[in-house]
Specification:
about 230 residues; mainly alpha; about 80% helix
């Protein structure tokens, strides 16, 4: 789990630095940076989404994942955790600690880089992919924390749980994923990243947390199709 520890440390360090810079960044600059980040997130997500070989798998996974996520109320649980942290440590209100926690938790957790990097770390003990992700997340944490506040710091908690769990599972199972499974998993995660970008731009309010199960459903569906040659 070396890669996950490095990733968590990068997020915490970046968030603390960003929080220190907060008072020195004018509101108009912060708003512009957030808009630019929103556009960049959409671009990254769109590139990932286009990797699908079968859009029907992505569509089905999002539908089934939405049902599962809404039933479990993943978004609500994330927001509830953020509000509990906010009540103890932070400020309240629109755009406060809870919003920063939920938004950056999703950004840092969703995507093939987090999943595949954790699997690589678990199977081979090589954390190179997660180290690269840590560099990206650290830079993003500085920018996010400077505009959204210290709530970004606490997003390291779900990152640790999420990536650490995948790494430990990969170590126990000892199995890899085929290129096709990876492509559909990546495409599904890419669409969720596009949704996060739209949320950052305040174009809409998509409950991305409730769609997170779609990533794993996409991998499962693709694997089943591959095994049975459907």
């Amino acid at each position: 789990m070396v890669g996950t520890f490095i990733n968590v440390a990068a997020i915490c360090t970046g968030a603390l630095l960003g929080a220190l810079f907060k008072k020195g960044i004018p509101q108009r600059v912060g708003d512009t940076v957030m808009q630019g980040l929103g556009l960049a997130v959409i671009l990254v997500g769109a590139q990932m989404a286009l990797q699908t070989r079968n859009p029907l798998i992505v569509i089905g996974s999002l539908a089934l994942g939405g049902v599962a996520g809404a039933g479990l109320d993943i978004e609500g649980r994330l927001e509830s955790l953020g509000r509990r942290i906010e009540a103890r440590f932070g400020r309240s209100g629109e755009g406060g600690l809870a919003y920063a926690f939920v938004t950056t938790s999703l950004i840092f957790c969703v995507g093939a880089m987090a999943v595949m990097g954790s699997i690589e770390d678990g199977l081979t003990g090589n954390p190179r992919t997660l180290i690269a992700k840590a560099m990206l997340d650290g830079i993003a944490a500085v920018i996010f924390a400077s505009t959204m506040g210290v709530g970004v710091f606490f997003s390291a908690i779900p990152v640790f749980i999420y990536q650490g769990s995948i790494t430990l599972a990969a170590r126990l199972v000892g199995a890899g994923l085929s290129p096709w499974v990876v492509s559909e998993l990546t495409a599904t995660g890419g669409l969720l990243i596009v949704a996060i970008g739209l949320n950052l731009l305040q174009v809409t309010r998509i409950k991305v947390g409730n769609l997170l199960p779609a990533i794993f459903i996409a991998a499962a569906i693709t694997a089943i199709i591959e095994i049975y040659h459907w």
